[in-house]
Amino acid sequence: MKKVLIIEDEQSIAELERDYLEIEGFETDIELNGRTGLQRALQGNYAMIILDVMLPEVDGFEICRTIRNNSDVPIIIVSAKKEDIDKIRGLGLGADDYMTKPFSPAELVARIKSHLARYNRLVNQRVDDHNEELKIKGLVINKNSRRVYLNGQEIQLTNKEFDLLVFLAENPERVLSKEQIFEKIWGMNTWGEITTVAVHIRKIREKMEEDTSNPQYIETVWGVGYRFKVS
């Protein structure tokens, strides 16, 4: 049985999330405090973490940052903070998804299932993928170890950043729309924010490119999407 940790200071919302998840066969734990929620997230063996932002003692952004530095566990932020800057910050810290309140509990469950299915496929792929390295213009992507090197220096990427980079690199010189990328990486073609793609592209460029205004790897094709350049 998959175990989900809910870190949410509004008990009624936490219990609503718990009820919907348990109906679908998930086991759940609830933490109403940011500090104890973080401790439990780091110590427990969870398949998914549902995370609020405005929490007592330790806020959700700091929790997300700390978890991501220690674990690849999928994280979905569910927050009343609706501004784009908050979504960008949460996704940039390594959250896999960002939902705003009020939200549909049924949609939350659907997103959880989608993220878990994709995460499990990636874990299995790490074992089964024999074509483990992509080498392009000084860039080395090892798909088994999920590590990236540029001119011999390792680049630290989040799970979604890595998946996105691999998808683009495996389709060199092909223009991929934001919708194609979103469906492939996030596993959903109707939910979520397409702007998530642009946020992750920007983060990858900041880590890889000397001049982000003149990228050498991921090129923007205005009005369409992105292309991975090999020349």
Automatic annotation (TrEMBL):
The OmpR/PhoB-type domain, residue ranges: 131-230
DNA-binding region: 131-230
Listed SUPFAM superfamilies: C-terminal effector domain of the bipartite response regulators (SSF46894), CheY-like (SSF52172)
Single GO molecular function: phosphorelay response regulator activity
Gene3D superfamilies from the UniProt entry: 3.40.50.2300, 6.10.250.690, Winged helix-like DNA-binding domain superfamily/Winged helix DNA-binding domain (1.10.10.10)
4-aspartylphosphate: residues carrying this PTM: 52
CC per GO annotation: cytosol; protein-DNA complex
CDD domains assigned: REC_OmpR (cd17574), trans_reg_C (cd00383)
GO biological process, one term: regulation of DNA-templated transcription
Pfam families on file: Response_reg, Trans_reg_C
Domain of life: Bacteria
Sequence ranges assigned to domain Response regulatory in this UniProt record: 3-116
Function: May play the central regulatory role in sporulation. It may be an element of the effector pathway responsible for the activation of sporulation genes in response to nutritional stress. Spo0A may act in concert with spo0H (a sigma factor) to control the expression of some genes that are critical to the sporulation process.
PANTHER family associated with the record: REGULATOR OF RPOS, STAGE 0 SPORULATION PROTEIN A HOMOLOG
Identification of the protein by name: Stage 0 sporulation protein A homolog
